[in-house]
Every structure is written in structure tokens, then in C-alpha cells.
Amino acid sequence: MRITAEQGDITTARVDAIVNAANSSLLGGGGVDGAIHAAAGPRLLEACRELRRTELPDGLPVGDAVATPGFDLPARWVVHTVGPNRHAGETDPALLSSCFTRALDVAAEVGARTVAVPAVSAGVYGWAPDDVASVAVKAVAAWDEAHPGELDEVRFVLFSAPVLAAFERAMATARRR
Fold first, then answer.
1. Under DSSP, is residue 2 helix (H, G, I), strand (E, B) or coil?
2. What are phi and psi of 113, to 5 degrees?
3. CA–CA gap between residue 134 and residue 132 (Å, rounded)
4. How is 64-89 classified by DSSP, letter by letter?
5. Is 90 exceeded by the pLDDT of residue 139?
6. For residue 135, what is the enclosing H or E element?
7. Which amino acids are annotated catalytic?
8. Which of 124, 130, 121, 59 has the alpha carbon at shortest distance from 92?
9. What pLDDT shows up at residue 137?
């Protein structure tokens, strides 16, 4: 599996699935979540409301993931994951790692071969980009080792140059090991 990183807008990524840094309500929010909901159109919110009505009445737990169609996005699927909120005391790196591995599990389950992933929890949830990058790169590499050949590419699509630099550092460190 190829693991790459680039600065860009995840809503325009031409991949099978994009990962949404959602909140547990799944009903939209700010940052990546708000951008994905806006780009996907109103049917995404309808699909998320249906998930809340049926499978997830209490919301999506931190570290877990669920898929919906991509609707008006170029990606066929949106895989929603809820990152830990450092400001709320959610500081366990295992929870953050779970966001990435569960998102890849769900992407593979729906048949995706290419996945675009943001820096989950690096924005308003207060995690340092270097910490997110380190956890994300290790989680994705470990997932690939455990599931060889299931995905062709994981592309980290990052919103700013400093976050991209953090991911590039983490990827360089992982290659040296």
C-alpha cells in the first residue's frame, strides 16, 4: 500500500473513500466535518440522521468509524470517525490510533481501495500536529501489515503547510525504522 501526504482540500480528493473527522452526533460541525457536509450536499446529513435514528442512537463513540455514501463528493464513500478531544481530557493516543485503524477497517469493508484521510483531532480538538502525524502514520502502517493488499493507497490530505510538514516528518521517521 502506498502512503502519501499532500496539502489540499479533502472534499475534492479523487479516491474511493474520504475520512471525515466528525463529532459524535454525526450531524455536521466545523472544520473538515463542516466542509465535507457542505460539499456532499443535504443527503449526507439525512444519511447521518438515519444512522442516529437506527444504529447509533447515542452517537458514534470516540475512536470508532461508520460509512455513508459520498453523495455529491467525488468519493463514493465518507467514513466518519470521532477523534479524541484533548480539551475534554481525551489524551490517550490509543483512542486516536483507533480512529485511523477503524476508518481503514470500514473503508475496506465497503470495498474502497483508495482512501483520503485528514489530520483527525489536530484542529479544534487540540492535539499537536506532530503527535497526530506520529500516531496516524504508525497506525496506518500497522494496519497495512495486518491487512496486506486490502487497500492500494492511503493519502493524508492535510489542510495546512505546518500540518503537512508534521506528516512528512512522521513518514520520514517511519521509513528510517
1. strand
2. -115, -25
3. 6
4. -EEEEE-TTSSSSEEEEEE---GGGT
5. yes
6. helix 129-146
7. 33
8. 121
9. 98
CATH of 2-176, one of 3.20.20.190, 3.30.1330.10, 3.40.220.10, 3.40.190.10: 3.40.220.10
CA distance to 58, 67, 134, 138, 157, per residue, from 7 (Å)? 34, 24, 17, 20, 6
Residues 125 and 82: beta-carbon distance below 8 Å: no
Domain layout of the chain by residue ranges: 2-176
- Which residues make beta-bridge pairs with 3? 154
First to last CA, the chain: 17
Q: Is the pLDDT of residue 176 over 90?
A: no
Distance of alpha carbon 3 from alpha carbon 19, whole angstroms: 15
pLDDT in tens, 29-52: 889 999 999 999 999 999 999 999
pLDDT greater than 80 at residue 145: yes
